[in-house]
Amino acid sequence: MNRISNEKKHLILPDAEVIYIPEFYSFEKERYYFKVLKTTVKWQQDNIKVFGKIHKQPRLTALYGENNQTYSYSNIEMKPKPFIKVLQEIKNDIENITKHDFTTVLLNLYRDGNDSNGWHADNEKELGKNPVIASLSLGEARWFHFKHRVISNEKYKLLLEPGSLLVMKGRMQHHWLHQIPKTKKVIDERINLTFRKIEIV
After folding, report:
1. Spatial distance between the Cα atoms of 2 and 123, rounded to a whole number of angstroms
2. Side-chain half-sphere CA neighbours of 157 within 13 A
């Protein structure tokens, strides 16, 4: 009932390696982790600057890590909190299936369809040259959009289902941008956990 799936779907994209596991966690385990993380994670809402104006980030975030390495993106610097038990459990499961080690997890809480994440790449220098990013989805399904930086007609979208795991690696972050767009549909909350390895620079 609480199985972990290893049924992998390889997305065929130029200049990228992308693997999608639609039922990484069973329904029961996905529900359990969502409820625990919603109430135990120390969520925060940072300010971001867009075209010279300060706005509240359109989602809540949290950073946990096994070291004290900070993580910076969009002029936001986050200092990690120590891993809690539930995050360590999830980290172990993802490391076992991906065969990669991770030091840090950035969590996003999308409260409704107005919460989003704009076009970006996970290419910060702390992540190294060809980072492996493992993204676990809990709660409401949301569309995930990719677009190639150079090839204008190379676009793709994928519905990230609850309990699914998306792994991006290879040259993905050099050549592609991705986003979680807003939606006008009335939808429930979603928690996204993006595991990464932060190198000392």
Report:
1. 34
2. 10
